[in-house]
Write a structure and sequence with these properties.
The strands form two sheets. This protein has a nine-stranded mixed sheet with strand order 2-1-3-4-8-7-11-9-10, with helices on both faces. The chain has a two-stranded antiparallel ribbon with strand order 5-6. It has eleven helices and eleven strands. The protein has a single domain, classed as Rossmann fold, CATH 3.40.50.970. Helices cover 30% and strands 18% of the residues. With 317 residues, it is of the alpha/beta class. The chain starts with 34 loop residues before the first helix and ends with a helix. Bound molecules: iron/sulfur cluster and magnesium ion. Iron/sulfur cluster binds next to loops. Magnesium ion binds next to helix 3 and strand 5.
């Protein structure tokens, strides 16, 4: 036709997803909120991994960051305060084929949801868990959270928070069957993206603590870390993502780290100055509870009925 050779065809995948395919409602976070950077990173990961939107689920609890599922054009579940992890585990146990991203905050995960946090880490089901840590309850307008630093003035502690904060990464590294823990910051887009993508590729429960700026209530908390890049310690080596030279230049302080070494990971996680960023720990050999919950998912309805009757017959007298 038109003198063009016709014995060729473009190698185009049947479906190609662009960023727009993952963009949900207009984000209603405050201007400058770090949540926006995380949303962008996750949308880019979905695009780069070509995750079908109908095979992707974002789950959240309650809090500013928990509005996340509304802003993704995927399936979503905006749950109850502190409960995103049991919901996400339930989804994975019945639909292991879905890609699950969990958005939870420091209040949501480390306070009311703390019990679920312990057990979800132990279940080690395959999902990416993003802890948006802004060191405050933002949605309910400025109350001390479990990660508020000592001295932070909030509505509940106007004279300053006085209990030592929980360290989410160090705490997670203390739970049984932990398999992936990383730490990053919202203001380093390339690092944030690379760490979250590494978390996505890990088979198991990938816990990523993200230091997230809240210009409305905790404007000064991460100021010094942001202004002085030498206060961050970039972890390299092991299962840390390879970064481009121009990204590396943004981290004057670097340290090689064996991501299989749990003791070294715990020591690093306890360190505030400089604050380690990157993958702290990864053990892909840890058992995943899906291996157990997946059993029987492929049974036909008739087989399931037979199995149920067999079980009920055990109670016959
Ligand atoms: Fe973001 Fe803070 Fe505003 Fe919440 S209150 S949307 S965390 S800046
Ligand atoms: Mg918070």
């Amino acid at each position: 036709m038109f003198g063009l050779p016709t014995d060729w065809e473009l190698d185009v995948p049947e479906r190609y997803f662009t960023l727009e395919d993952y963009e949900g409602g207009t984000a209603r976070w405050c201007p400058g909120c770090g949540d926006l950077a995380v949303l962008t990173a996750v949308q880019r990961i979905c695009r780069d991994e070509q995750l079908p939107p109908e095979k992707t689920v974002c789950v959240s609890g309650i809090g500013c960051s928990s509005r996340f599922p509304h802003y993704m054009k995927t399936y979503g579940f905006h749950g109850l305060h502190g409960r995103p992890l049991p919901v996400a585990c339930g989804i994975k146990s019945r639909r292991p084929d879905l890609h699950v991203f969990v958005a939870t905050g420091d209040g949501d995960c480390c306070s009311i949801g703390a019990g679920h946090w312990v057990h979800a880490v132990r279940y080690n089901m395959n999902m990416v868990v993003m802890l948006f840590d802004n060191a405050v309850y933002g949605l309910t307008k400025n109350q001390t959270s479990p990660t508020s630093p000592i001295g932070l003035s909030t509505n509940t502690h106007p004279k300053g928070a006085w209990l030592p904060p929980i360290n989410p990464a160090a705490t997670t590294l203390g739970f049984a069957n932990v398999s992936f823990v990383a730490q990053t910051v919202d203001w380093h887009a390339a690092h944030l993206y690379s760490v979250l993508r590494a978390a996505y590729h890990h088979r198991g429960f990938s816990f990523v603590r993200i230091l997230q700026r809240c210009p409305t209530y905790t404007a000064g908390v991460f100021d010094e870390l942001q202004k002085d890049p030498s206060r961050l310690l970039l972890l390299t080596g092991g299962d840390n993502p390879e970064l481009e030279p121009d990204v590396l230049r943004g981290f004057p302080q670097r340290q090689a780290h064996d991501t299989r070494d749990l003791v070294a990971a715990r020591n690093l996680a306890d360190q505030d100055e400089p604050l380690p960023v990157g993958v702290l720990f990864r053990d892909p050999s840890r058992p995943c509870y899906e291996e157990f919950t997946n059993a029987g998912l492929d049974l036909t309805a008739a087989d399931r009925l037979k199995a149920l009757e067999r079980e009920l017959d055990k109670f016959a007298v």
